Amino acid sequence: MSASGGTKAIVAALAANLAIAVSKFVAFLFSGSSSMLAESVHSLADSGNQALLLLGGKRAQRAATPQHPFGYGRERYIYAFLVSIVLFSVGGMFALYEGYEKIKHPHELEHWYWPVGVLVFAIIAESFSFRTAIKESNALRGKQSWTEFVRRAKAPELPVVLLEDLGALVGLVLALGGVGFALLTGNGVWDGIGTLCIGVLLILIALVLAAETKSLLLGESAGTEAVEKIETAIVAGDTVTGIIHMRTLHLGPEELLVAAKIAVRHDGTATEIAAAIDAAEGRIREAVPIARVIYLEPDIYSETEAAKGADREATPGGPATSPAGH
Predict the structure, then answer these.
(1) Residue 1 pLDDT more than 50?
(2) Is there a contact between 206 and 233 (Cβ–Cβ < 8 Å)?
(3) Within 267-309, where are the H helices?
């Protein structure tokens, strides 16, 4: 997995979650707190999620085959989608079930210092993991807001780890609140309420992750900045006079497909046009290094044909918006 895949953040989160899961489960055994059981399952699910992300990054590095000529880059999206399913089912639904059972059959907490101590330790450990994810993300985020970064990032690992760590920290605060109110009031129902809140939180995060990774699985185009660089690179030569239409598609987080019909001079020879296409491909790769698969089709621009609009039959899913200015 490349550096942009956030491997450091994934490993940090995995190490923190494994340690936290063990400590939470021990606290549950001594105290009987359902919040602690839900949190231990949550941390265990998060550990499995980070293992899935690492596995997806490893499998995505496989070389292209005749059956998969564009490689396996999208495996990273598939495993990120699996993370959202695990978080929803194992983390969220289990917490809802435990919370319901605790509210229905409350009991007083025993050895309260175990869950409180473990929760404080977990908050500290998760804070270090979250800090690593933020530091790795800032290197790629640029001027984007955090919401824009999560929605627009083409590499799924860092948004997944960010949302997981944020959910873990909020969940720990909810668990600490549930345990604290249960101790203050002597009513175990508060522990169940905290557990229910954790379940709702995890399900909401899982739904956000599922929506974003589904979009990546369907196939997203390059970002606006990359599209502008590609357009500029194509028309920088003398032979290419414009772009008739262009499509871009992410084959993986670090691999972009570019397909364009370009307008060339009507008096150009086949040799000149071939040389112009080669030069344009070189300029595209220099401007946007992840543009690794490029198909440029030369044509003569016709205002009459352009006025007819896009051909729905020729474009999967219907016509796409033409690049600005062309």
Answers:
(1) no
(2) no
(3) 270-287, 303-307
Average pLDDT along the chain: 83
Rounded distance between C-alpha atoms, residue 248 and residue 170, angstroms:
38
Whether residue 10 contacts residue 50, with contact meaning beta carbons closer than 8 Å, is answered with: yes
Tokens encoding 136: 């790795």
How far is Cα 12 from Cα 179, in angstroms, rounded to an integer? 27
Task: Give percent above pLDDT 90 in the chain.
Answer: 14
Q: What is the DSSP string of 51-100?
A: HHHHHHHHHTTSPP-SSSTT-STTHHHHHHHHHHHHIIIIIIIHHHHHHH
Which residues, including other chains, have CB under 8 Å from residue 113's CB and lie 6 or more apart? Answer: none
* Tokens 């040799």, located at residue: 271
Query: Rounded CA gap, 190 and 193, in Å?
Result: 5
Beta strands in the chain (DSSP E): 240-252, 255-264, 291-299
The answer to whether the Cα torsion of 137, 141, 143, 146 is positive or negative is: negative
Q: Do 62 and 71 meet the contact criterion of CB atoms below 8 Å apart? A: yes
Distances (CA, A) of 295 to 1, 19, 181, 281, 291: 26, 49, 63, 8, 11
Q: What integer is the mean pLDDT of 8-16?
A: 85
Instruction: Identify the three-state secondary structure at position 244.
Output: strand
CA–CA separation, 46 and 40 (whole Å):
10
Do 161 and 13 contact (CB within 8 A), yes or no? yes
Residues counted in the chain? 326
Structure tokens, 159 = 């948004």
Calpha distance 115→30 (Å, rounded): 8
For residue 43, give the nearest of 63, 23, 28, 60 by alpha carbon.
23
Average pLDDT over residues 272-300: 92
Dihedral sign for Cα 268, 269, 271, 273, please.
positive
Q: What is the pTM of this model?
A: 0.74
Sort residue 299 into left (φ over 0), alpha (ψ -120 to 50) or beta: beta
Question: CA angle 76-156-175, nearest 5°?
Answer: 115
